[in-house]
Amino acid sequence: MRMQGDDSTSAGGRMGDAAARLAQDTTELARREIGAVQEEVLAALKRFGAGGVLLVGAGTCGLLALWAAHETVLRAAESVLPRDRAAAVLACVYCAGGAALGVAARNRVRAAADATAGALEKEAGALEGEHTQMPGGPPTGA
Q1: Spatial separation of the C-alpha atoms in residues 131 and 85, rounded to whole Å
Q2: Using CA of residue 94, residue 97, residue 103, residue 108, what is the dihedral sign?
Q3: 73, 90 contact by CB (below 8 A)
Q4: DSSP of 3-32, one letter per residue?
Q5: DSSP assignment, residue 54?
Q6: What is the C-alpha separation between 115 and 108, in angstroms, rounded?
Q7: What pLDDT score does 111 carry?
Q8: What is the arithmetic mean of pLDDT over 132-139?
Q9: What span, in angstroms and rounded, lies between the C-alpha atoms of 131 and 142?
Q10: What average pLDDT does range 49-73 have in this prediction?
C-alpha cells in the first residue's frame, strides 16, 4: 500500500540528487574558471618577468655608466687637485646638485598640488552656483 509520505520522500530524494549535481557542476565550473585565471596570470607574469629582467639590465648599465662618468671626472679633478680634495669637491658638487634637484622637485609637486586644489575649488564653486540657481533648491537668502 502506498502512503502519502512516500511521495514526499521520493521527491525529496530527487531534490537532494539535483542539489548534489548542481553543487558538483558549480564546483567544477569554479575549478575551471580558477584554472583559466591562473593560466592568464602566469602568462602575464612571464611577459612581465622578461620585461623586468630587461629593465634591471638597463638600470645596471645606467648605474655602471654613471660610475664610469664619476671616475672620469674624479681622474680629471685629480690632475688639478690632490686626490682627497678632488673627491671632496666632487662630493660637494653631487650634494649641491642633489639639493637643487630636490628643491625643484618639491616646487613642482607643490605647484601641481596647488593647481589641483584650485581646480577643485573652482569646480566646487561652479557646482554650488548651479545648485543655488536650480528651481526648487534651497532658498538663497538670509
Answers
A1: 68
A2: negative
A3: yes
A4: -HHHHHHHHHHHHHHHHHHHHHHHHHHHHH
A5: H
A6: 10
A7: 92
A8: 61
A9: 17
A10: 91
Provide the grid cell at 135: 528651481
C-alpha cell at 101: 634637484
Residue with cell 646638485: 97
- Say how far apart CA 8 and CA 14 lie, in whole Å: 10
C-alpha to C-alpha distance for 91 and 70, rounded to whole angstroms: 10
7 CA to centre of own chain = 60
Identify which of 10, 44, 42 has the alpha carbon closest to the alpha carbon of residue 18.
10
Q: Is the pLDDT of residue 61 over 90?
A: yes
Q: What is the pLDDT of residues 71-90, one digit of tens each?
A: 999 999 999 999 999 999 99
Q: How far apart are CA 74 and CA 94, in angstroms?
A: 12
- Distance, CA of 65 to CA of 76 (rounded, Å): 17
Helices marked H in the chain:
4-78, 83-133
Amino acid at 132: T
pLDDT at 142 over 50: no
Burial per residue of 97-122, b for 16 or more beta-carbon CB atoms within 10 angstroms, e otherwise: eeeeeeeeeeeeeeeeeeeeeeeeee
Is the overall model pTM greater than 0.85, yes or no?
A: no
- Name the grid cell of 37: 585565471
